[in-house]
Task: structure prediction
Amino acid sequence: MAASLPILRDVPAVPAVRVSARDRRDWRWQLRNAITSVEALEAALTLTPAEREGARRAVAEGFPLSITPHYLSRIDRDDPACPVRRQCVPTADEALEIPGDLRDPLGEEAHEPVPGLVQRYPDRALLIATDRCGVYCRFCTRSRMVGDGGGAIREEKLLGALGYLRAHPEVRDVIVSGGDPLVMATDKLAALLAKVRAVPSVETIRLATRCPVTLPQRIDRALVKALRPLHPIWVMTHFNHPRELSKQSDRALATLIDAGFPVMNQSVLLRGVNDDADVLEALFRGLVRRRVRPYYLLQADPVRGTGHLRTKLDVGLEIMARLQGRLTGIALPKLIVDTPGGKGKVPIGPEGIVRREGGATTLRTFRGEEVVYLDPR
Ligand code: SF4
Result:
């Protein structure tokens, strides 16, 4: 029997081990076999000295390392410039701090009215359901706390958050985030979401998850069956590069969308990963083909130790100028800067207004032509 099993190159063990297709499809197996040590990473990829040093640092202190076998299978084992690898393999550059770096760039701790709940806007709040993720993204805004070992939110914290939501009916939209809430057991996640859904003023729930990208096996029938009665639930996912669109991701997205979960994508603009109009065009077109709406292209938050992954603001503006008119509107996300200190998101874009004189506004089109638009008298 064993001889007929495929060899999965990316299993974090030496030498490569035989794994059944059934195990590979099991999200718990994926989590159990995630790479979390320098030795396993070394066995799976040809590491550069900077990556080896970064991995040692990640394992020893602070922001941990975790790469699922699925996500590992998207990585080029010999190319340190691989866009998937740059997102999840630590490097020595993480030890560097540059001006503007912040531990908590979105000021979430200052906007936490009760533990575990962040409110930065009047009508929405973010519930931190767990600190765990399948893969720890090296640019994560919450690197200060994800992977800390706390696990799923404790009952008393959750009760406090629910009490706050009941006392603040102006909050109509709750983003359940983390960490990644989909690494929680299905019954625990469904019970948590049912409690949020039971707050009468909550209209929409959004699940923020990278599982369709990093752990697509997680999106199974049992999950959608358990969550479907709690609609409307929107899924906010996070593809950054077309290489992340795999057969398994396709299946996960179709399972969610066919079960009535609208799926929106937030990409983060990352140096050496997707800071290129052609790459992003391929990603956004690929997402729309899969019925996923590219929603935001986020300027990377100034998280401590991520300067090597961030771009200048001009890079995003130039990319958007190139994509404007080249991509259908449903494939074109908003370019967003989430302002440091938790002051909120600001959409930015190539300047469309050239000048205004009285009721005459000169606009620049995607072809660079200037056209005058006259206000009605
Ligand atoms: S999955 Fe989300 S929360 Fe987890 S490390 Fe990646 S960006 Fe951060």
About this structure: The chain has a mean pLDDT of 94.
